[in-house]
């Protein structure tokens, strides 16, 4: 059985778009779930727009998302000699020809067709069937000999059977007169040489498939399985753009979404496995198939993203969650945690993870464990520490000093002091929150006490009643 080989082939002309990230994920899932290989190729033939910084951004984005690739990253530009070699091989096979038409001649043809009212006209090169003896000593491009009659059929795993009338296919240039290969040639040669069995990419490339299939046929190569996936639209149903919010993958890390939640959400964006919403990487790899991809564009839904991310934060072990929170702080330009803060956050995770959908939410809830004395009091928290509250907290402090530090014992001690003043537990919780966190909205006061420990709790209560 042939090993499955997929690839992700972005152009390094900017950030990694979330749509590109989903394409990479689909390729990764399809290969990994079948014991195949997932390869990465940087399509950097556009030298004016391609930058090393964009390449680095793509690699960072893939690494953050947790998509590992096999072998070295392939540079398309560095393979240009191989592309040219194939173009000349097609010349020798008679499936391509030398075209000496100048740019001015082609422009004149276009202008003539426009004058006739033709919206689109295939350029018919006069050199297609010219006798080589008539070839001038001049620069030439190499053009494909496109079929003139019949149809080209694309068998697509997502779009179904797509038929293109050959009369609409031009004799596309595969090698320019300056010796540089075109994108259409380079992609096919690279995919063939890399052994790609399945080309899974956005449906904006569907029109390219018919033209690229000509190259496969001209070289006698096996055509890969095509799977053109619909693009991602914004919540309003229009093509995703910056007006909808973040479109670059790294922005999502900086916004505090966990990578596992992003993988889960992007997998569900246009693909389904029954009614499953939340699933692990292992399940996604086992379940993912091309038949589950819909033909309609997927719509970005931030509420669904947040809900899934919250579930993944809750399900992630502490030892994996803490490093990802630190990476988020770095990505968002926030100060790194001190060792004391790391220790405090690590102790607090058990009471934070279930109620946090993003890392900023979690960090905000962890304020009590990350801050240090003397606490900075919010206005409402300061108001909760009135004279009566001072007296109650002052009375509570020595009793906590002698309590065994368990939740049941702490609840019993606080309840007893509240009852002695004819108060319910809720009435004393407000001043306690203020004293322990400097805020009125916090995790449970008993969770905070357990996380902070006896010494720190006593010190904060004394500060509050001083």
From TrEMBL:
<dbReference type="InterPro" id="IPR049940">
    <property type="entry name" value="GluQ/Sye"/>
</dbReference>
<dbReference type="InterPro" id="IPR004527">
    <property type="entry name" value="Glu-tRNA-ligase_bac/mito"/>
</dbReference>
<dbReference type="InterPro" id="IPR033910">
    <property type="entry name" value="GluRS_core"/>
</dbReference>
<comment type="similarity">
    <text>Belongs to the class-I aminoacyl-tRNA synthetase family. Glutamate--tRNA ligase type 1 subfamily.</text>
</comment>
<dbReference type="GO" id="GO:0004818">
    <property type="term" value="F:glutamate-tRNA ligase activity"/>
</dbReference>
<protein>
    <recommendedName>
        <fullName>Glutamate--tRNA ligase</fullName>
        <ecNumber>6.1.1.17</ecNumber>
    </recommendedName>
</protein>
<comment type="subunit">
    <text>Monomer.</text>
</comment>
<dbReference type="InterPro" id="IPR045462">
    <property type="entry name" value="aa-tRNA-synth_I_cd-bd"/>
</dbReference>
<dbReference type="InterPro" id="IPR008925">
    <property type="entry name" value="aa_tRNA-synth_I_cd-bd_sf"/>
</dbReference>
<keyword id="KW-0436">Ligase</keyword>
<dbReference type="InterPro" id="IPR014729">
    <property type="entry name" value="Rossmann-like_a/b/a_fold"/>
</dbReference>
<keyword id="KW-0067">ATP-binding</keyword>
<dbReference type="InterPro" id="IPR020058">
    <property type="entry name" value="Glu/Gln-tRNA-synth_Ib_cat-dom"/>
</dbReference>
<dbReference type="InterPro" id="IPR000924">
    <property type="entry name" value="Glu/Gln-tRNA-synth"/>
</dbReference>
<keyword id="KW-0648">Protein biosynthesis</keyword>
<dbReference type="InterPro" id="IPR020751">
    <property type="entry name" value="aa-tRNA-synth_I_codon-bd_sub2"/>
</dbReference>
<feature type="domain" description="Aminoacyl-tRNA synthetase class I anticodon-binding">
    <location>
        <begin position="338"/>
        <end position="464"/>
    </location>
</feature>
<feature type="binding site">
    <location>
        <position position="242"/>
    </location>
    <ligand>
        <name>ATP</name>
    </ligand>
</feature>
<feature type="short sequence motif" description="'KMSKS' region">
    <location>
        <begin position="239"/>
        <end position="243"/>
    </location>
</feature>
<feature type="domain" description="Glutamyl/glutaminyl-tRNA synthetase class Ib catalytic">
    <location>
        <begin position="3"/>
        <end position="306"/>
    </location>
</feature>
<keyword id="KW-0030">Aminoacyl-tRNA synthetase</keyword>
<comment type="function">
    <text>Catalyzes the attachment of glutamate to tRNA(Glu) in a two-step reaction: glutamate is first activated by ATP to form Glu-AMP and then transferred to the acceptor end of tRNA(Glu).</text>
</comment>
<dbReference type="Pfam" id="PF00749">
    <property type="entry name" value="tRNA-synt_1c"/>
</dbReference>
<feature type="short sequence motif" description="'HIGH' region">
    <location>
        <begin position="10"/>
        <end position="20"/>
    </location>
</feature>
<keyword id="KW-0963">Cytoplasm</keyword>
<keyword id="KW-0547">Nucleotide-binding</keyword>
<dbReference type="Pfam" id="PF19269">
    <property type="entry name" value="Anticodon_2"/>
</dbReference>
<dbReference type="InterPro" id="IPR001412">
    <property type="entry name" value="aa-tRNA-synth_I_CS"/>
</dbReference>
